[in-house]
Amino acid sequence: MVTEQVFSLNPLTGEKHAIPTNLDHSKAIDDFVLKNKDKPIIVVQGLGFVGTAMSLVCANAINGDYAVIGIDLPRPNTYWKIKSINDGHCPIVASDKKIELFFNQAKEKGNFLATYDPYAYSKADTIIVDINLDVQKQSNFEKDLEGFDVDLGPFKKAMSTIGENCKEDVLIIVETTVPPGTCQKVVQPIITEALEKRNLKSDAFKLGHSYERVMPGPNYIDSIQNFYRVFSGIDPKSEVATETFLRTVISTKEYPLTKLSNTNSTEIAKVLENSYRAMNIAFITEWSRFAEEAGADIFEVVHAIRMRPTHKNIMLPGIGVGGYCLPKDPLLASWARQNLFAGAPLGMSEEAVKTNDKLPLYAFEFFAKKFGGKLAGKKVLILGVAYAPDVFDTRYTPVEPFYNYLNKEGCEIILHDPLVSYWEEKRLEIETSFDKILDKEDIDFIVIGTGHKIYRNSSALVNKVATQENIFLFDPIGVFSDENIQKMKNGLGTIKVLGRGNI
Ligand SMILES: NC(=O)c1ccc[n+]([C@@H]2O[C@H](COP(=O)([O-])OP(=O)(O)OC[C@H]3O[C@@H](n4cnc5c(N)ncnc54)[C@H](O)[C@@H]3O)[C@@H](O)[C@H]2O)c1
Strands, DSSP E only, in 374-437? Predict the structure, then answer.
C-alpha cells in the first residue's frame, strides 16, 4: 500500500516539507549523543512556545553544559519546526534578540537536536515536559460557557511514551500546566507501571513539578532564565534533583527558587495565579460597563485607586482575554477539584472565564452601536491581532471573535500586526509595515486590537485620525494619553475609548 505523503507548512518561510514516512531517527540521535558524549542529555518534550524557548535556555545553561534534544510529534503543524531546527534555522521570530542569539550559540556548539522519535527518551538524564493539555469548552464566543471537559488522554499517552523508553533513574520535570493532582495521581503511576513492565527499578526515577510564566515577547528568554520559579518534588530525592537541575539553568541568585511542600501545591499555585488574573479582569469588566453607563472614565478611576499600595494591581478593561493559559487554567483547576478530588466546582473561577470569553462580543456590540448603522461594506483596519502587547502569539486572541463579527457584518477588513506576518488560526497573511498600512486613505474605521508599543501614542496614528475626515477610531484597550485623545477630538476624525465614559 502506498501511503500518501503528508506535508508540513513552515509559516515563517512558506516552504512545504514532506513529513518522513520512516520515523526512525535513531542514527541522528546516536550521532548527536556521541558527539556530545561528555554532556548530560536533556530531552524537552513539546517544541511549542514554552518548550522551544526552554530548550534554548537549557542549551545555553548558565551553570551547566548540556546537550538538548527537543521532541515533538511529526504532524503537519509541528514537523516544520523539527526540520527548521535541524537545518540550522531558528523556528521562532521574536522581538527578543536573545532567541536568535541562543539559537546561534547552540548551533555553533552543536548541542541542540530536534526529533520526532521517542527513542530520544532513552538517552535522557532529564526530561522536561512542555506539551499542551487542553480544555474542551462547549461554547463559542457568542454563547455562554455551557460546559467543559478535560481529556487527559493525550497527556497520559505522552507520559506512557516516556515510561516505555526512559532510563530507570531519569529526572522528569513537568512544566505543563496540569489539573492539580496530576503528578501524584497520573504521572507517577504511569511511569512506575511502565518501568515495572520493562523489569526496571520503579523507585529510582525522580519526578518534579515546576512552573514559570513564559512571555513570548521582548523578554522571552528572561521570562524563563531570569525569573522566579516555584518547584516541588514527588518525594525528597525528586525535590533535591529538581532543585539541583533548576539551579543550573535559572539565575537563582537573583531570582531565588520557591520550594513548595508537594506537587499538588505547585500545581495549584500555577492555576491559582492565572485564575486570580482572569478573575481580576472579569471583575473590572463589570465596573467598566458601569462606568461607561455613568459617564465615568474607568481609566481615571483605576489610576486613582492604583496610587494606594494595597490596590496596585487592579486591572484595566480591554478587548478580551486571550493566550493559551488564562482562558483555560481556571477550568483546569475546577475540573481537577471535581474529577481528581471529588469536590465542588470552583464557581467563581468558572464565572470569570465565562465573563472574559464574552468580552470581544461586548466590545463589538459597543463599537457597532457607537459608530453604528450599517457596517456592511465599510473598510475596517484592525491594528494588532496578537493576544497581548508585543508578543507574536495569536492563540485564542480576542481579536479573532472581533474579526469574525466584523466579517459577518460584511466589512472589508485589513489587518496589521508588527510581529505577526501570518495568522495561523485564520490562515491569513498580515501586513507588518505600519507606514504602509497608515498610507491607506479609504479606511472608515480603525480598531486597536492589541496594545503593541508601536501603536501606543503613535503620532502618525493620532495625525491620521486628526486630519482625515470621516475616520472613526475605536480603542477598546486604552493606548492613547489624554493629550492625544484631545488632539484627535479637536481634529476631523472621531475617537471612542471603551470604558472612558464620555470620551
Ligand atoms: N506562556 C505560555 O504559553 C505558558 C507559560 C507557562 C506554562 N505554559 C504551559 O506550558 C505548556 C505548553 O505550552 P505552549 O504554549 O508551549 O503550548 P504549545 O501548544 O505551543 O506547544 C505544545 C507542543 O507540545 C507538542 N506535543 C503534544 N503532545 C506531544 C507528545 N506526546 N510528544 C511530543 N510533543 C507533543 C505539540 O505538538 C506542541 O508543539 C502548557 O501546559 C501551558 O499551559 C504555557
Answer: 379-383, 412-416, 422-423, 428-429
